[in-house]
Structures are given as structure tokens and as C-alpha cells.
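User: I've been going back and forth on whether these two constructs are worth ordering. Before I decide, could you fold them both?

Assistant: Sure. I'll take them in the order you sent them. The first construct and its C-alpha cells:
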Amino acid sequence: MSTLLLDAEAIYADLLKGVQKLLRPDAALVGIWSGGAWLAERLQSDLGLAGSAGVISSSLHRDDFGSRGMSASADHTKLPFDVSGRHILLIDDVLFTGRTTRAVINELFDFGRPASVTLAVLVDRGGRELPIEPAFSAARINLAAEQRLRLAKDADGRFQFDLKED
């Protein structure tokens, strides 16, 4: 694994500004497990929002469940608010094919019918297989299909990126 030369903290600052523009007074932040959850938690604090951000997992609605199986800690979903009628601002770290986002939206609807769902991502790396686009992405990059970009968080809560080859 190698470190990608992208400044994750600087890109996070851009995400913060973008999310601030998308945020409605009655919106709730929901981070996609795990990198998106870290981002949503920090955004919740940096934006001075009351309560806690939600966390949602894609594991129960993945279309590749047969090949990936169920992880030992599959249910990371925690939504500390009523989803029904709520404007949801979905946060993810890296958007690639769109399949995780599709699975998460299915999971979200298991908890109620939101008024709207808006997607904001730290990095859009292209390569979409589904018609899913973020309302805001702090950065756009091109990577080869066999490369995997992952957000990491150090002990102090600072973000960095790791790049891995399949």
C-alpha cells in the first residue's frame, strides 16, 4: 500500500464548504461506513450541528453479497433520528462505481421514506456503472480500474489517502 500525494485535509476543507452550501435547516448527515462515517462525524462537529450524524452500511443490500459474503460486523447502521420526511445529506469518502451508494439508499429506505437524499463525496474517481452522481465532490481524479483509493484516519483524527493495487 502506498500513500497517494493528495492532501486529504485540504480536500476535506473543500468538502466542508460544499456541504455547508447543500445543508438545509432540517437536514441530517449520514455517513457511509467507514470513511464516509468519519467524514460525517467531523462535519457534524465542524458545522456545529446538534445531535449526532447517522452511519449507514451497504453490506445488507450489496449486489455482490454472494461473492463477498457477510462481514463479522456487518451491521454498522445507526440512525439516531427519524428518517421519514427528513432531508438526508449522504456523505461518502470515495465514489467509484455507484454500487455502494445504491445499496446504502436501499438500506436507508428500510428505515423510512426520506423527503430527499443528496450525495456529497470527498473524491469522485469516475468509473460509474450506475447512474449515480454526487451533488458535490471536493475532488475529481482518474485512477486505473485496478487501483483502490481509501481514506485513512490517524490517531489524531487527521485524514490521509492510501492507494492500493488489486
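The second construct, handled the same way:
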Amino acid sequence: MISYAPLWETMKKRGATTYILQVKGEISSSTIRRLKANESVSTNTLETLCKILNCTLEDLVTYLPDTEPSSEV
């Protein structure tokens, strides 16, 4: 699973709000809702967030492996 927990910490460190994301980056409220729910967003959105927050991808997302074994091979 992809988690956007690092994004919220990065925003806190930089004093950024979701309002700033919407105004400076034209990030829609529906995209912010998707980020909060750890749902998928486009790579363009991630690039825009990196530009707004002057950070790297690692400052926005982290991968959390599934705890259940996969049946896929």
C-alpha cells in the first residue's frame, strides 16, 4: 500500500496547508481527499507537490507492504 503520511509531515514542517496546495498548485479538493485516503493520484500530482513543497518523492510517499501473503505469482 502507498501511504501519504510523509506528505502531511512535510507540509507541517514547511507550514503548508491544503489551501496552499489548492491555490499554488491547483490541486483539486477531490485530489486532496484522495491523498488523505491513501488512494492513487497521478505522477503529475506528485511532481506538482514536490515543486510546491520543494521536496523529493520520499518526502511525500512511502510504501507499506501488505501483511497478508499474496496469492499472485
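Notes on the second construct follow. The mean pLDDT is 92. The two ends are 18 Å apart (CA to CA).
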